[in-house]
Amino acid sequence: MKSYLLSRRQRHIRAICFHNIGLFKTNGNTKSITDHGDGFVPCFFILESIRGELLYISEVQSDSLQKLHFQELPKLNGASTMIILKLVGKVPKEILRSIVSNKNTTIDDKWCILCTYTIDLNKLQPISEDATLITSVNTPVLELVDGSYTLPTENVELIREPTSLHKRNISEIKIKHSLAYSSLLKLNKLLEYSSQVHEEMNELSTRIEDSFPLHKNQHQWYIKTVQKSITTLQTKINKKNIEMSQFEDNDTIHHSKTEISLVSQDESINDDYGSIYSRFVQIKDRLDQLKIKKLYQLIGIFRSTDLFDIGKGYIRFERSSSLDNIIESLKLKTLHIESLFKKAEESSKQREHMNSQLGYYLLFLHLTATQIFKLPLPYKLMYYGSTSVIEGQYPLYFTDSMITKHQTKLLRAMHYFNADILQIKQFLENYCST
């Protein structure tokens, strides 16, 4: 049987059945089942994706041990070529009691996983269920849209050749095609009718074109509109030229007056230069004092957090007597990536504390750079509490289950965050107030 699917996927599975149901790996020996039970094993199967996501759980069937059929699967929407198939069977309590050493304990029937298969749908071998014999225990047979398939490792024995359709021998008699006289007359009438309809359509189209003169003289209408636009543009150009000539005449008259006024203005500017500069220096000094005051207020607000803790914090600040030494006494620390990852593995409470501390540190730097000193940073900081983000896509927080993708993004976020810290440190070290 030749398959017509280029790549088999989850959505192509229609039904699943199992051959030679057995509780033990004894090549189909069902002696233990027949001795301790009614001869049938209640079973159902579980279908999962390769990531472990549950796709389908079948109903319970127990009507046969040789070939156990299940209902047709609902339509699956997955595009993956890999699935995980599990067969779950109900082990009778008599068999469990025979295995257990203590015979007096009360044991009930238990559901156990009899077999688990990780199946690549593109590596299955096609079979014909009517013409093949399957000898292995708990062998799955998957019915896809293009036929039945089983595992590539299973030994399949052919009982007989699969039945094929009977092909009729093609006759060698040459058939001469002929036409009756009546059919030829009908064909002639149809051709005459179609030609008449075509002529009438041509006449109607010419009449319609004659009734609309704009269609015939359409190019003349375009020419007229272009000529009108040219004339309007020429009138506008003439008006502009007249206005320009008037401005040039006025400029020559007032030229001498402007030279005299410019000389007097230069003298007044030279006189007022010293006073204007001193005013600018005073304004800048007041602005610097406001910035330092805002920074001191921001430090006071974040004192309640653990950012300024000597052992665990990221910011070191020594109290100073004057406001001028606040910037010098403020020391920012960069993130030590290896120690942070070691601390995150200790407990979930430790991870939550670290995430909130990183969020506060990001908020402090963001307010210092954008709101106080108007300092541009190389990477954009976005505060979202304990789940803050850098550049809108790199998370600066730890999770309970650290996936490799999240871990790589977290490492990049820490490197970007350290670059922003170095930028602010260099600015504060070189900052000089008037």
Automatic annotation (TrEMBL):
A matching Pfam family: VPS38
Protein name: Vacuolar protein sorting-associated protein 38
Species name: Saccharomyces uvarum
Gene responsible for this protein: SUVZ12G3830
